[in-house]
């Protein structure tokens, strides 16, 4: 198959995946406080920071009260570490996270709450690794950036192609595919759809029988072949 034909096939599969996931999300998407319209950039960023390597349901249990207790960067920068630790205890590594979150708040107070659009400068801010920077671009700056965590990686690898590197942040194929998939006018919804789909259907042990994209999923195809053998 020529390169142009291969690209057309890939584009067709991506389009199918986007359409099916958006349909699925409309009916099955999870409802979280931080997905509401009209939240401040502070509220969005804090949600993404707390969600990193943490189940969304865990964060949902304390996020609304956290925002009431610490309503802005100034309140968070002036918070006592013990108080932050009390809130973050459910999410693991709470002492480290408390210090890093306070440092982020102190930096944002210095910046008067303004997040830079320059990617290099954005990632230089404490706690602003690749994932959080992508979330800022997606939610604050309305750019089609993927929220690539282990859950999104699992879905993308199963449906499309497995990555080559252990660290998802540096795998060129996974990153390129993820950007291609969310390059859509509903980039935010596609990101949320994939994360919810990973939590509810494409779990570590997948529920292929209820999967809307199984007919084009490489994992499902391989499972069927192996079962026939």
From TrEMBL:
<dbReference type="InterPro" id="IPR023170">
    <property type="entry name" value="HhH_base_excis_C"/>
</dbReference>
<dbReference type="GO" id="GO:0046872">
    <property type="term" value="F:metal ion binding"/>
</dbReference>
<dbReference type="GO" id="GO:0000701">
    <property type="term" value="F:purine-specific mismatch base pair DNA N-glycosylase activity"/>
</dbReference>
<comment type="function">
    <text>Adenine glycosylase active on G-A mispairs. MutY also corrects error-prone DNA synthesis past GO lesions which are due to the oxidatively damaged form of guanine: 7,8-dihydro-8-oxoguanine (8-oxo-dGTP).</text>
</comment>
<dbReference type="GO" id="GO:0034039">
    <property type="term" value="F:8-oxo-7,8-dihydroguanine DNA N-glycosylase activity"/>
</dbReference>
<comment type="similarity">
    <text>Belongs to the Nth/MutY family.</text>
</comment>
<keyword id="KW-0378">Hydrolase</keyword>
<dbReference type="GO" id="GO:0051536">
    <property type="term" value="F:iron-sulfur cluster binding"/>
</dbReference>
<dbReference type="GO" id="GO:0006284">
    <property type="term" value="P:base-excision repair"/>
</dbReference>
<dbReference type="GO" id="GO:0006298">
    <property type="term" value="P:mismatch repair"/>
</dbReference>
<dbReference type="InterPro" id="IPR003265">
    <property type="entry name" value="HhH-GPD_domain"/>
</dbReference>
<keyword id="KW-0408">Iron</keyword>
<keyword id="KW-0234">DNA repair</keyword>
<protein>
    <recommendedName>
        <fullName>HhH-GPD domain-containing protein</fullName>
    </recommendedName>
</protein>
<dbReference type="GO" id="GO:0032357">
    <property type="term" value="F:oxidized purine DNA binding"/>
</dbReference>
<keyword id="KW-0326">Glycosidase</keyword>
<dbReference type="GO" id="GO:0035485">
    <property type="term" value="F:adenine/guanine mispair binding"/>
</dbReference>
<dbReference type="InterPro" id="IPR011257">
    <property type="entry name" value="DNA_glycosylase"/>
</dbReference>
<keyword id="KW-0411">Iron-sulfur</keyword>
<dbReference type="Pfam" id="PF00730">
    <property type="entry name" value="HhH-GPD"/>
</dbReference>
<keyword id="KW-0479">Metal-binding</keyword>
<keyword id="KW-0227">DNA damage</keyword>
<feature type="domain" description="HhH-GPD">
    <location>
        <begin position="50"/>
        <end position="200"/>
    </location>
</feature>
<dbReference type="InterPro" id="IPR044298">
    <property type="entry name" value="MIG/MutY"/>
</dbReference>
